[in-house]
Amino acid sequence: MTNPQSDDHKAILDLLDRWITFASNKDVDAVMALYSDDICSFDAIGPLQVRGHAQYRAHWHRCMPERGTVFFQPLDPSIRVSGDLAVVHFLIRCGLRHDDGSEQASWMRATKQLEKQGGHWRIVHEHFSVPFDYENCAAQFDLAP
């Protein structure tokens, strides 16, 4: 794990904080500024993979509900940096808070691979997943840390 006092560690935590803020505010333009042009995403929401900035921007727009509040609550991000590459993994509670206060949310697993490009960290790969029960193939949305 990277030294939590290092400039890279702080910059990556800042990027993650901005990602959460921008995504929670449904600001797709600001979110997309954090990604590399050649982003590859394995999102929990289909399709199986999304490649490139234009496709991922369209995917983000499809995933943003018109009503309600989206939220992202990461738990204890682990950061590893080696040169111009970094990996961050964490559990994250993602969901939608409806206007009546009810929530549709679950804990998921998240991994982000970053690359330093032009002196700035950019997300080059992202993976979100929900565990499933192999006996009945049902997603396990009720798991919690």
Description:
By secondary structure, the chain is an alpha+beta fold. The protein is 23% helix and 46% strand. The protein contains 3 helices and 8 strands. A hairpin with a 2-residue loop joins strand 3 and strand 4 (85-97). The protein is globular, with a radius of gyration of 15 Å. The mean pLDDT is 94.
Write the layout of secondary structure elements.
Layout: H1 7-24, H2 28-32, E1 35-42, E2 50-51, H3 53-63, E3 69-82, E4 85-97, E5 103-117, E6 120-129, E7 132-133, E8 138-139
Parallel strand pairs: 1-6
Antiparallel strand pairs: 1-2, 3-4, 4-5, 5-6, 7-8
Task: Quickly describe the structure.
The chain is an alpha+beta fold.
Structural class: alpha+beta
Could you say which overall geometry the principal axes of the C-alpha atoms support?
A: globular
Radius of gyration: 15 Å
- By DSSP, the count of extended strands is 8
How many helix segments? Answer: 3
pLDDT below 50 for ≥5 consecutive residues: which ranges? none
Mean pLDDT: 94
| Secondary-structure element order, N to C | HHEEHEEEEEE
Report helical residue fraction: 10-25%
